[in-house]
Structure formats: structure tokens, C-alpha cells
Write a structure and sequence with these properties.
Elements lengths: L13 H12 L8 E4 L5 H5 L22 E9 L8 E2 L24 H9 L3 E8 L9 H15 L16 E6 L7 H12 L7 E4 L11 H6 L4 E5 L15 H10 L7 E7 L12 H14 L3 E7 L1 H6 L3 H9 L46 E4 L2 E5 L8 E3 L2
Parallel strand pairs: 1-9, 2-4, 4-5, 5-6, 6-7, 7-8, 8-9
Antiparallel strand pairs: 2-3, 10-11, 11-12
Helix pairs in contact: 4-5, 8-10
Enzyme class: hydrolase
Catalytic activity: Random endo-hydrolysis of N-acetyl-beta-D-glucosaminide (1->4)-beta-linkages in chitin and chitodextrins
Pfam family, one: Glyco_hydro_18
């Protein structure tokens, strides 16, 4: 099949376009514009009790566009509860109050399985965050930590159990938001999870969310002992917050990533509240946070993106997540560039467009941020965005 250059003569079939979209949907940890947004605690509802319309929505509600890349589910907050199993709590969506497995205090959240799969089908990774500010998340020994890693693997990841809270939905990894206790057992926990993941045929991610003071009082030794894929540093509720430029210490974390971390490819995220009520201190507006992200992106090779607490607050604050994603995209767009892709795996079907303007497909506009898979006309040719982009990569279609 020969691609004709002018769109008025040829329109690529939906099959080839879909092929490009599927390639673009895969999560890429190596990027420097990823956005991780926590979900589960209905933070907006906690600070705006009377505004139920703004309370946390279903998980899939936050997966309808390409803005968010990673969603940690918050939280698995008790490691060892009734029946030896953990406890999970997702506020107004699912908790022990909405139903548990017999003989345990483990919430049965199998109603969330479809949402998890829907988000994953759109290229997002869904992880489980352990701990939290009030979590009972401690180990007495390495042996206990390894046993718990087995439990997490079987309940939420690639293992099997009769008490899987999300049914047949398989999460993409775990996040460790450990804000108290000690580091005992955590290196063993991470290593055991990695051993399960190796050879499983699926990529699993392990992240951490330390406080910005370096080293983290509780989790510092763990970060030095085992490799993490990404670290969501909480630059709020501390002197080194995003709101205090003189003490903001992203450079220190970048140095740790390059010189101390066992994984020299670890990505460091700027953690931030998505609205003023979302944290005790450290909130900055979207313009300020966006500038910090652009500064870090240009200056530090370890920069991986931004983490926000949380989804409900971001949506309640005028889609704060969109503003930050736009800022990481560079602000001003650039023209689509590149050359025709290699032969598609699916044979394209030649069709005749209903009009000379590619059947109503809009002309590319440099001021517009496009979702992954968006189609535009540029110089008479059809292009599709490889991922969320304002100045990113476009795939030539015809």
C-alpha cells in the first residue's frame, strides 16, 4: 500500500490509527512529564463536607483523558488485621463498612475491578499505596515483611487468592507512603516483591513517597538499600516545600538519585497538594508549580514529573491536574514533525473521504493541547498524536 501525501485523496483506516493509539497508550516511566495523582481518600469531601457534588468520584471518572498517567490507590493502611489479612480504605467508594471477606476486616472492593481495567486499558498504571499519615504500617522482622509481600502479591498483584479485593483485576505495583514507625523489614519486602515480579511477564512498579527533608526520617535507609522506579517527594507540610524557594531541595534528591540510589534510573517527582485545603502547608498555585516543574525538567535529569494529592482536590480546583500537565508540556506548541511510520501490522484500507478536508478533521493548532490519539491536518497530511502533547511527538498517518 502506498501512502498518498494529500489528505484529500486518502484517509488512513481506523485500523492503522488505532494501532498508533495503542502504541501511545503504554505507560513510559522514563518520560519527564508524567503525572501521578492519588485517589481514594476523598480529600475534597473531607475539606468541603457540604459540597457533595465535588466529592470523590469513581476511579474510572479520572481516566477519561490522557492527563493523569499514574493513580496510586490510597490506602492499604493496616498491614495485619483480623484473620492475618490487611485493611484497605477508599473512603466513600469502598471500605470495611461496605462489606468484608468473612473472618477478616479486608474490604471486598470487587466492584472496582471494571474501573481498574478501564483505566489500565487507557495506558494508565494503577498501583496500591501502603501506609498514609495514619497507617499502621510496620514490620517486626525481615521474615514478617517477606510474608506480607507474599500476601500483597496474592491479593492485589500477580498471585492468586480467594480473597482478592479487586477480583481478577491485577494492579501494576505498589507505592510506599510510610510516614511513621521504622525502616525494619522494608528492604526485604521490596526484594520479595521484585522476586515475584521477575519472570511474571508483566511489568510491576514500586514507588515511594518520602517527605522532602533529606534523608527522610523514616524511609531514608530503605531508599538507600533497594531500588525504586520512582520517588514522589512530598514537597509540602515541611520547611523544604514548594512554597519556600530558599529551602526547596530538589537538587539534593537529584544528587541522591544519581549517586546513591541502587537504581540510577529512578525518577524523582515533585509532590504537591492539588489545592490549598489539601495539605497543612506548602500549596502553590498552578503557575508557580508549573514553573518549578519546568525548572526541574531542564536542570535535573532525574525529574520524572509531578505528583498531586489528590484527584478530588485537583478536580475541585479547576482541574489543577490539567494546568500542571500543560505546564510540563512546555507551554507553546511546535509543528508536527517526523517521517512516515514503518509498515503497519494491520493492512490499511483505502477509503474515499466525504469531503476534501479529511472528513471534518480539524487543522493543527499550536495553542491546543491534544490527547493521545488525536487526529489533525497539517500541510494537507493526516497526523495522530503519539501521546498527550502540545509539543510532543506526532505520528505521520497519510
Amino acid at each position: 500500500m502506498v501512502f498518498l501525501k494529500r489528505c484529500s485523496y486518502f484517509l488512513a483506516s481506523s485500523a492503522i490509527i488505532a494501532s498508533g493509539i495503542m502504541q501511545s497508550l503504554a505507560f513510559d516511566i522514563s518520560r519527564s512529564d508524567n503525572l501521578a495523582v492519588y485517589w481514594g481518600q476523598n480529600s475534597y469531601g473531607a475539606t468541603h463536607g457540604g459540597d457533595q457534588g465535588g466529592w470523590q468520584k469513581s476511579l474510572s471518572s479520572y481516566c477519561q483523558d490522557d492527563v493523569i498517567n499514574t493513580i496510586p490507590l490510597a490506602f492499604l493502611h493496616v498491614f495485619f488485621s483480623t484473620g492475618g489479612l490487611p485493611e484497605i480504605n477508599f473512603s466513600n467508594t469502598c471500605s470495611s463498612e461496605t462489606g468484608v471477606f468473612p473472618g477478616t476486616n479486608l474490604a471486598n472492593c470487587q466492584s472496582m475491578a471494571a474501573d481498574i481495567k478501564a483505566c489500565q486499558s487507557k495506558g494508565k498504571i494503577i498501583t496500591l499505596s501502603l501506609g498514609g499519615a495514619t497507617g499502621a504500617a510496620t514490620f517486626s522482622s525481615d521474615a514478617q515483611a517477606e510474608t506480607f509481600a507474599d500476601t500483597v502479591w496474592n491479593l492485589f498483584l500477580g498471585g492468586s487468592s480467594s480473597t482478592r479485593p479487586f477480583g481478577d483485576a491485577v494492579l501494576d505495583g505498589v507505592d510506599l507512603d510510610i510516614e511513621g514507625g521504622s525502616s525494619t523489614g522494608y528492604p526485604a519486602f521490596v526484594k520479595r516483591l521484585r522476586s515475584h515480579a521477575n519472570g511474571s511477564g508483566k511489568r510491576y512498579y514500586i514507588t515511594a513517597a518520602p517527605q522532602c527533608p533529606f534523608p527522610d526520617a523514616f524511609f531514608g535507609p530503605v531508599l538507600n538499600a533497594v531500588g525504586f522506579d520512582a520517588v514522589y517527594v512530598q514537597f509540602y507540610n515541611n520547611y523544604c516545600s514548594n512554597a519556600n524557594p530558599g529551602s526547596w531541595n530538589f537538587g539534593t534528591w537529584d544528587d541522591w538519585a544519581k549517586n546513591t540510589s541502587p537504581n540510577k534510573n529512578v525518577k524523582i517527582y515533585i509532590g504537591a497538594p492539588a489545592s490549598a485545603p489539601a495539605a497543612g502547608s506548602g500549596y502553590v498555585d498552578a503557575a508557580t508549580l508549573g514553573n518549578l516543574a519546568k525548572q526541574a525538567r531542564s536542570q535535573y535529569s532525574s525529574f520524572g514529573g509531578v505528583m498531586l494529592w489528590d484527584a478530588s482536590q485537583a478536580y475541585g480546583n479547576g482541574r489543577f491536574d490539567v494546568a500542571i500537565k500543560n505546564a510540563m508540556g512546555g507551554g507553546s506548541g511546535v509543528q508536527p514533525t517526523g517521517s512516515p511510520t514503518s509498515s503497519p501490522t494491520t493492512t490499511p484500507v483505502q477509503t474515499t473521504p466525504t469531503s476534501g478536508n479529511c472528513a471534518g478533521i480539524a487543522t493543527w493548532d499550536k495553542s491546543t493541547a491534544y490527547a493521545g490519539g488525536s487526529k489533525v491536518i497539517y500541510n494537507g497530511r493526516l497526523w495522530t498524536s503519539k501521546w498527550w502533547t502540545q509539543n510532543g511527538t506526532w505520528l505521520f498517518v497519510s
